[in-house]
Amino acid sequence: MSGVKNSDQEILKIGENILKIRKGNREILVPEMIGNRYIVEGVLSASSGFGLILFARDLHVFGRKVLIKARDYKGKIKRENLDNRELIAKARSEIEFELKVLEVIRQINVPNTPVLRDWIKGYCPSINWPEGYVIPGKPYLNDLAYDEPYIVLQYVEGEPLSEYLEKNMRSMDLNSPEWIKIVLSLSKQLLKMFRKMYAVGTNHEKIKCIVYQDLKPENIIVTPSKNFVLIDFGGVAVISKNGRIANYGVSTPGYLAPEVEDRSMKDKFDHRADIYSLGVLMYQMLTGIHPQTTMTLKSQVANLDYNKLSSLPRIKAIIQKATKKNPDERYQTPDEMLEDIREAFNALGSASKSHV
């Protein structure tokens, strides 16, 4: 067994083509090599669900750095559970759906999204060795473990916004013009992405609108130049021109819009759900309050205290409008919110922070 320590993770080789990576309080099993082409070097981000983003190098292109979207089945596969095959099949169908979404994203040229480089099938050790399964020499579900799909993306230098916030928010004056500019810059970049996804129907025969739906810090990469890149499209919903919604309801507690939680409001579900989630994210970055800590036992929708933003009246008004419970009372388009964000950004240079 060999081990390598990076700044935030420890990598151990524990078997043939099996790495155990300790990142934070997580232990993650990943292949050392994917498809005889990609060498895994670490984990960029690990969601609370299945999703992983791996660092890797492409041996076919001079060791070029790439990111790989993978699945971690640890804790999901239960030993001797007959539903495991169905669970894996569903997860793989989600990967295929994400591939189709990424192709549309490429076609409509959505900014601040990584280029799809490849997709490939390979070994998945967390299927072979699920948590609690310890029968030496007899791997579990061996017929499925070598057929796991992986999405290969353009390398993006940076760190997840969740880690960036954890490192910086405690020492940062959240009312400082410098921090407010970062928050507004993030908002502007995201709204430009949403604008493209909202307008996809003008150039697509079947799709009316793409809703990112699962906006949260874990799905955003902060680059060294303070640009922001959406990295995970597994939770995207696609609204067809015939009214059908594919992948509706995939969102994270605290960030989800009311119409995502309450299926009786499904007829109001569209791009305005992303506007809502962006308002929640802005609130978190400007108050330091994680939205999940504001939820009640009855609802996974954040219960925001707008009085925490009283020192920033202009931005408070933007967040209040973006996070209205009724989608019809929110900003109706990304451009509408973008206009107010730009005005607030420009006001930073001409007014004191108490009037931003």
TrEMBL record:
Its EC number is 2.7.11.1. Pfam families: Pkinase. It is an enzyme of class 2 (transferase). Keywords: ATP-binding, Kinase, Nucleotide-binding, Serine/threonine-protein kinase, Transferase. The keyword ATP-binding applies. The keyword Acetylation does not apply. Residues 39-345 form the Protein kinase domain. PROSITE patterns: PROTEIN_KINASE_DOM, PROTEIN_KINASE_ST. CDD domains: STKc_PknB_like. Signal peptide: none annotated. GO terms for molecular function: ATP binding; protein serine/threonine kinase activity. PANTHER family: SERINE/THREONINE-PROTEIN KINASE NEK, SERINE_THREONINE-PROTEIN KINASE NEK2. This is non-specific serine/threonine protein kinase.
